[in-house]
Task: inverse folding
């Protein structure tokens, strides 16, 4: 007869909890990337509003389980901030990127391409896109850390709205410059559906992950007592 120790039970419960987090990240990222792909692919003028709203509702739906990152750059910020470990962060990244690829496949299968064109970057346009992605990814990650992880806002009800509107604002402000990804998973999904050009795809994860790390460092510097 096998004896189930308290330690073994704790490990099983922890594994189940981690699995739930990864599943929530996959679901939330899928719907975010699908919304981005569908609204941009179909040429909707309301794409920024749809994208921000999608992120907002998915954060409210799954934030209590996984934190509602749905973005490798946000996960990077939370990792640097010290709220998750590297192993868990890698699991988040895998779930997020897998969801992006799946969402792109569904977009290509069900949405008829309208006026969306492939964004190509070179010269000044490339530099401008890097700056745009750096600034608004930093803003997004900085907002997430302050409204969703700060000890000064333990039970607020506005965090999803603040995060969703940050993305919407960025999409309106610089969407015409960089495409307004602010998220390596969104960039991957966008490249897979032909919105972003593959040769310059690297610009997005590099700029966005750097911005996420910078936001984590900024939070720690400005909130030294919030561990």
Result:
């Amino acid at each position: 007869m096998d004896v189930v120790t308290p330690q073994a039970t704790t490990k099983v419960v922890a594994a189940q909890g981690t699995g739930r987090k990864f599943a929530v990240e996959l679901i939330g990222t899928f719907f975010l990337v699908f919304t981005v792909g569908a609204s941009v692919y179909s040429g909707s003028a309301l794409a920024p509003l749809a994208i921000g709203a999608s992120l907002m509702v998915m954060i409210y739906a799954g934030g209590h389980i996984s934190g509602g990152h749905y973005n490798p750059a946000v996960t990077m910020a939370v990792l640097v901030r010290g709220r998750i470990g590297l192993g868990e962060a890698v699991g988040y990244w895998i779930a997020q990127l897998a969801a992006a690829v799946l969402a792109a496949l569904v977009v290509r299968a069900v949405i008829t391409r309208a006026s969306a064109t492939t964004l190509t970057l070179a010269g000044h346009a490339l530099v401008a896109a890097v700056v745009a992605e750096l600034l608004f990814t930093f803003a997004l990650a900085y907002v997430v850390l302050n409204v969703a992880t700060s000890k000064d806002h333990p039970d607020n009800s506005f965090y999803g709205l603040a995060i969703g509107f940050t993305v919407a604002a960025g999409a309106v402000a610089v969407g015409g410059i960089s495409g307004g990804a602010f998220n390596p998973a969104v960039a991957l999904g966008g490249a897979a559906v032909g919105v972003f050009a593959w040769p310059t795809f690297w610009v997005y994860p590099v700029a966005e992950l750097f911005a996420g790390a910078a936001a984590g460092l900024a939070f720690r510097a400005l909130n030294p007592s919030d561990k």
Remarks:
- The chain has eight helices and no strands.
- Confidence is low (pLDDT under 50) at residues 1-6, 8-13.
- The two ends are 44 Å apart (CA to CA).
- The first helix runs from residue 6 to 41.
